[in-house]
Amino acid sequence: MMDGGKGGLELVPLHGDFGIEARGVDISRPLDAATVSALRDAFGRHRLLVVRGQDLAPEAHIAFTRHFGELEVHVLDEYHKARHPEIFELSNIGPDGKPNAVHPDRGTLFWHSDASFQKVPALATLLYAEQVPRDGGHTMFADMIGAYEALGASERERYRAMRVMHDLHVSRLKAGYAGMTEAQRRQAPPVEQPLVRVHPPTGRLALYLGSHGQEFVGMTEHESRGLFERIMNHCTEPRFVYDHVWKPGDLVMWDNRATVHRGTEYDTAAEPRVVRRTVLKGEAVVAAA
Asked: What are the structural domains of the chain?
């Protein structure tokens, strides 16, 4: 357990070097500069921040996010909420107030990094739980820095030279949805990203892959599929994964530059799950030298 440097703030490791839980802080209220600095530093070093037991209105959710950078809205217009366009809500509650048996976004069941399909991808995502199922509906996070550093020297060198096409259209098809319209394709065209990127807060290198990025530049579809599965199987070994079991009032913030994540299944016909997220604008991806 580490002292966060202000008041009752305590920072507790979650999964070795990967992930930190902040205790003794109420993020629904304005925070002093020392607490904000401690949280920023912990998040930068550990890539994953958990704060439990919060009563967080949408306005407070947005205000807390602003401590870490500038907010963005989803690239596709249909995900915007009229009152709070910065918030993207995922809910299986129907008009009658009951679970509707429809998963709000099946793409979240695949390992991915949020907005890696954008030329300037998202820096971080902050997800807050309002209602959670009694069974399932977890979120699993994989440490892409730890996974890269555990590779052999020859693989690390080979991967640093490789590039990958990231495409929201492809990942939507993989999740069982219809392909994107031409208008949507103009909003989110495919982009090329390095397979290994620099994590700016630490200078460490991270693998950068997930369901949005599946086609390796210069490889056939068959070759790409085989390498994609090999790398993702490595990255998602239990030694690199933190499994977050949600409770109402949890907020989890993760660094999309150095993690991938996925949700787990739950009974959408019987169990309510309502979560909302904000996303921080990122910077241009810096490839490994």
From this structure: 2-281 (3.60.130.10)
